[in-house]
Amino acid sequence: MPSLTRAPRPARKPADDRRAEFEQRVLRAVEDLLADGTPYTEIAVQKIAATAEVARSTFYRYFPDKSRLLIRMAELATSDLFAAAERWWNAEHTDREVGVRNAMSAMIAGFRRHRYLLLALSELAAYDRDVGAYWRGRVAGFVDLVRHRLEVDRAAGRVAPELDPAATALVLAAMVERSISTAFAVRTGISDAELARALGRSIWLVVYGDAPAGPA
Asked: Is residue 3 part of a domain?
C-alpha cells in the first residue's frame, strides 16, 4: 500500500541568501560581457539577463535601470578594496611601510578581479548623474576616514604639525584611485607588485616622511 505521508519539501533559502546569489550571478554576467570589449552603455538588459540566466521581470525587480545596476555591482566589487584600505588606516602602523604596501597589494588584486566593471564605473561616473553621485559619496566617506586619522595623528605628534589633514586625505585618496585606474586602463609595463610598492612608499612618505617621531 503506498504511503500517504508526504515527502518534506526542501527548505527554501532565506531571502537574503537568494538575493546575494542572484546578485553574484548578475555581477559575473556583466563582467563577462564587459570582458568581451562591449561598452557598458551598449550592453542591453536582455543580454545581461540572458547571460545570467534570469528572467527580465526578476532582473527589473532588483534593478529598475542600468545605473542602479552598475551602482550595486560596484558596491559588491569594491567592498574588499575599501576594506583593505580602511583596515590599514585604522591600524597602529607599527609595521611601517610594509603594512601600507600590503594594503595596496590587496586593493590592486581586488581591482584586477573586477577591472572591467570598475573601469566602466570610472567612465560612467563622469557623466551619469546617479553613478557619479554614488561614487563621489563613496570616495568622500573614505576621505573623511583618512582625514580623521590624520587629525588624530597630528594631535598626538605622530605626523608633522604642518600636515593639513583634509587636503592630505583628498590628495592620497585621489592618487590611489587614479593610479590604479590608469594602470589598468592602459598598458604601462608596471607590475602589480611594482605599483603596490610605489603607492605604499608614496603614502608612507607623505604621512610620516617628515614626522617628528612617526607611529609608535
From this structure: no
